[in-house]
């Protein structure tokens, strides 16, 4: 009887280690968040300059808070700015 208990215990430990090595049971903890909806952009502040256009190069023009706040487009996972920084007026 003790041989069966030891065998079952060793099998359970080995199975747990194998599952931990494969990452089973922890997929939710390490899953990437869904990508942001790049066609929506951030909320536009009241001091934002007028929108330059609705679309540019086939992409919707959106507001971003990056670099002090600017209008631009998302193209190939990169943000291309179309306006100046609203705080400094610079590029």
TrEMBL record:
<feature type="compositionally biased region" description="Pro residues">
    <location>
        <begin position="32"/>
        <end position="49"/>
    </location>
</feature>
<feature type="signal peptide">
    <location>
        <begin position="1"/>
        <end position="31"/>
    </location>
</feature>
<keyword id="KW-0732">Signal</keyword>
<protein>
    <submittedName>
        <fullName>Uncharacterized protein</fullName>
    </submittedName>
</protein>
<feature type="region of interest" description="Disordered">
    <location>
        <begin position="32"/>
        <end position="55"/>
    </location>
</feature>
């Amino acid at each position: 009887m003790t041989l069966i208990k030891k065998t079952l215990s060793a099998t359970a430990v080995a199975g747990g280690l194998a599952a931990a090595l494969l990452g089973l049971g922890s997929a939710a903890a390490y899953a990437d968040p869904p990508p942001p909806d790049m066609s929506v952009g951030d909320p536009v502040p009241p001091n934002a300059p007028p929108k330059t256009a609705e679309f540019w190069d086939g992409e919707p023009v959106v507001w971003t808070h990056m670099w002090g706040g600017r209008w631009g487009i998302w193209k190939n996972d990169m943000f291309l700015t179309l306006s100046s920084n609203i705080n400094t007026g610079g590029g």
